[in-house]
Amino acid sequence: MANHQIKVITEEGESVSFDCASDEDIISAAIRQNIFLMSSCREGGCATCKGICTNGDFEMGKVSAQALPMEEQEEDMVLLCRCYPTEDMVVEVPYTSDRISYSEEGKEFITTITTLEQISSNVTKLCLTRSDGEKKIKFDSGQYYDLEIPGTSTTRSYSPANIENNQGEMEFLIRVLDEGKFSNFLKHDAKLGQSVNVKGPSGIFSLVANGFTPRYFVAGGTGLAPVLSMIRFMKEWVEPQPCTLYFGSTFEEEVFYSKELAQLTEEMDNLTVKICVWKASDTWYGEKGSVVDILKQDLQNVSIKPDLYLCGPPGMVDATHSVCEQVGIAKENIYLEKFLPSVS
Ligand code: FES
Fold this sequence. Notes:
By secondary structure, the chain is α/β, with parallel strands linked by helices. It has helices spanning 26-32, 70-74, 181-189, 224-236, 258-267, 291-300, 314-326; strands spanning 3-9, 15-21, 50-55, 58-60, 77-79, 83-85, 89-92, 108-120, 123-130, 144-148, 155-158, 169-175, 195-202, 215-220, 243-249, 271-277, 287-288, 307-312, 334-338. The chain folds into 3 domains: 3-99, Beta-grasp domain (Ubiquitin-like (UB roll), Roll); 108-202, Elongation Factor Tu (Ef-tu), domain 3 (Beta Barrel), CATH 2.40.30.10; 215-338, Rossmann fold, CATH 3.40.50. It has a 6-stranded antiparallel sheet with strand order 11-10-13-8-9-12. A 6-stranded parallel sheet has the order 17-16-15-14-18-19, with helices on both faces. It has a 5-stranded mixed sheet with strand order 2-1-7-3-5. Residues 39-42, 44-49, 67, 79, 81 line the site of FE2/S2 (inorganic) cluster (FES).
């Protein structure tokens, strides 16, 4: 089997090189040599390992069309967990070198369930506390962790809604589906005091320093979690940029955390919250209409173009993305995280 040289170049121009056999995917080859590039599902479904091949050739294995759409494949974008080199390759990745680690130490830990509460018709709040003697939870707001369903090797990725802390606490807001392995675990088996293995953090969705440019956060459903973490981080560090949260749901009974958001608005002079319900009743107190339409109206009237942080289902993220393009917000000012369906 031929061996090829892979050079991975990070956002700031640092590089790391390693060998990869032609029947081996690039993420696995790197791990074999103790290089841990960004990855999560390792089965072509989440897009965490996305990069762009700037030199060399390769074959792509099976990937989810949402994680790597055809138009991105045509631009030589790759998912490294499903990318098999046929030549030496150079790949650029959209993250900095501090996201690459050289051991897995500290990446996996044990937690205990401390809160399990249904907070809307389809969302459960799950709080975990580290129970391995260590109390540090260190991540960038917007990143996610992989939670393992006890007694299985199945994991699902969720972003904490709280911020990094030294109390070992993690707060997750999880959409409960009719079917779904983690949903079934929450509905039927999870209980207070139960141990849950956690791995992470992962992901490149995070706040970007950009002077005093206003920040707009657009969240659909439990996409609220990572952006709430970002807003809470801004509060903790007294970041002064004006920020507006657009939180969208289809029905009123799906809305959650309205009290927490009202409280946050009182505590932060620079925060505006708009809770948007698409199919609202006459008595709904918040915004009526789709989050994308309400955002579009607002963006047409702004004098300073904001940075946009989007998190939610692919349809909402894509529609918001095209609204941003229509009103002239540059691609570089849009940061997004899509919820992609699990491959298994
Ligand atoms: S890690 Fe490659 S797509 Fe998820």
